[in-house]
Amino acid sequence: MGYTIIAPFEQDAKALLLGLKEFSIGRVILLVPKGRMQDARKAARMVEGHAVTVEIKDMGSDLVDDMFRLFSTILSRKDPDLFLVNIAAGSLSSASAALSAAFAHGLRAFGKEGKELVMYPVLNLSYYEELSDTKMRILRVLSRHAWLPLQEIAKRLGLSISLLSYHLNGNTSYKGLEAYRLVQLRQDGRQLLVRLSSLGATLMAGAGKA
């Protein structure tokens, strides 16, 4: 069956052909913003001429959140090693969002320099694989609120203050959520308040129900 390529598409239809010679490709999924659907259908017909199945998914108005959400939906219960991300056909903004989503999911991504295919380095483990279940539970609670007191988070999750602090702050040999830059901490009098960082919010937008 070959790889499935996830590709943001806005402007360069020929860039969608990148990787067809280098990899065995069975399917291409185009992530298309509103207003570019007609161009995407033309590009899809061109790619289908190379015996590759094409699927088109409509992007919403929030580029980063929608990119992470679509990646999460596409990858749900599937082997990430069977996916590649082609950022060459997107705009600078959509390519950056797709590369961030690829990074978060531990996917291999590629673009082009001139006419040459260039592979981008990725994490050996995605954020979703590296974060423990407890850390993900903390992030889910924070995703539904703004600033929350440490005591309130502990109460909602049934954790001790010391264990919660450990997951937030980590130690010399273990990264906490703050070191991952997924949360922000703020002292308010005697209370320590916690909220998602912009990166944390973006990550949770793509986490779905996982």
Please provide a brief summary of the model:
The protein is built from eight helices and eleven strands.
Structure description:
The chain has 210 residues and is an alpha/beta fold. The chain folds into 2 domains: 3-120, Hypothetical protein VC1899 like domain (Restriction endonuclease-like) (Rossmann fold); 131-205, Arc Repressor Mutant, subunit A, CATH 1.10.10. It has 8 helices and 11 strands. The chain has helices at 37-48, 63-75, 92-105, 127-130, 133-143, 150-157, 161-169, 198-205, and strands spanning 3-8, 25-32, 53-58, 83-86, 108-113, 116-120, 148-149, 170-171, 174-175, 183-188, 191-196. The strands form 3 sheets. Strands 3-2-1-4-5-6 form a 6-stranded mixed beta sheet, with helices on both faces. The chain has a 3-stranded antiparallel beta sheet with strand order 7-11-10. The protein has a two-stranded antiparallel ribbon with strand order 8-9. Helix 1 (37-48) links the parallel strand 2 (25-32) and strand 3. The two termini are 26 Å apart.
